[in-house]
Amino acid sequence: MSLTQFAITNAKPRDRSYKLSDGEGLHLLVQPNGSKLWRFRYRFAGKENMLALGAFPHVSLSDARDKRAEAQKLLARGIDLSQKRKEDTATASVAAANTFGAIAGEYQTKLKEEGRSESTLSKIKWQLDDLASSLASRPIAQIKPAEILEILRRIEKSGRKDTARRLRGTIGSVFRFAIATLRAENDPTYALRGALSKPQVQHRPAVTDERELGALAQSIDEYDGWPTLRAALQVLLLTMARPGEVRLMKKPEVDLEKAVWRIPPERTKMRRPHDVPLSKQAVAVLKDIWGLSGSDLVFPSIRSNKKPLSENAMNSALRRMGYTKEEVTAHGFRASASTILNERGFNPDVIEAALGHQDEDEVRRAYNRAKYWPERVALLQAWADLLDEFRQPVRQAA
Question: Is pLDDT at 203 greater than 80 in this prediction?
Answer without folding.
Answer: no
